[in-house]
Amino acid sequence: MSVLSDKVVIVTGGSSGIGRATALHFAARGARVLITGRRAAALEAVATGHADIATLVADAASGADAARTVAEAVGRWGRLDVLVNNAGAGAILPLAEATAQRIERILAVNVTGPSLLAAASLPHLAASEGAIVNVSSTYGHRPAAALSHYAASKAALEQLTRSWALELAPQRIRVNAVAPGPTASEALTGMMGLSPAAAAAVEAQERQRIPLGRRGQPDEVARWIVRLAEPSAAWVTGQVLAVDGGLGLV
Fold first, then answer.
1. Which of 57, 89, 74 is nearest to 9 (CA)?
2. Ranges in the chain, pLDDT < 70
C-alpha cells in the first residue's frame, strides 16, 4: 500500500495547473483529496472519475471559507494530514499603477488566506503530525520589474514557511514550500490578465532566460509537493525548494 493511503489532503487552487496536478498525484498515491477554488465546473472536471477527490467552492482569501474548508475535509474523512496552500493571485502591476484594492487582493490570497487556512488546520495537523506545503514562486526570492507586489507576497509566504516551521515543530507539524519557476498553466492569461499574444511573448522571453531552456510542467512541480508531504521527508522542515529550471540562479 502507498505511504499516503487514507491520508487526507487539502489543495487550494486545485482546478488547474499545479494545483490540479498535485491533487491527481496525491489521489494516485491513495490519499483522499479536497480541492478548492472559485469555479465549480473546473473543480468538478478534475474530480470526475476520481472517487477520492472531492470539491468545494471556496475563496482562498476568506476566513469564513478557511474554517468551512477544514470542516468539510474533517467532516467527510475524519482527519487532516496535509495542507497545500497553492491558490495564488498576482498581476502585472507597475508601481505607478498600484492601488490599495489591487495590492490588498494579492496579499489577501497569497498571505492572509494561507495564514487563516493554516490556523484553522492546526488542531487536526497536530493530531496527525501532519505537514503544510506552501507554493511560492521564483519571484519570492528574485526581483522582477512590474511584479513587485506579487514578489513581495511570495517573499512573505516563504518567511511564513520558515517561521511556522519553528513555531509548529514542537507539535511535529512540518512546514515547507516549493518555489516553482514559470510553469505551463493559465496563469499568464488568467491570473496576470495578459492577452494570448502578450502571454506568448512572455513565454518566449522566459524560455530564453531559464538555464534549462524551457518552462516547467505542472507534474514536475507537483511531484515535489507530494514528496515534501510524505513520511520520507519526516526530517525536513522550514525549507523552500526551488523547482525552476535554474532561473533563480541567473
1. 74
2. 1, 188-189, 191, 194
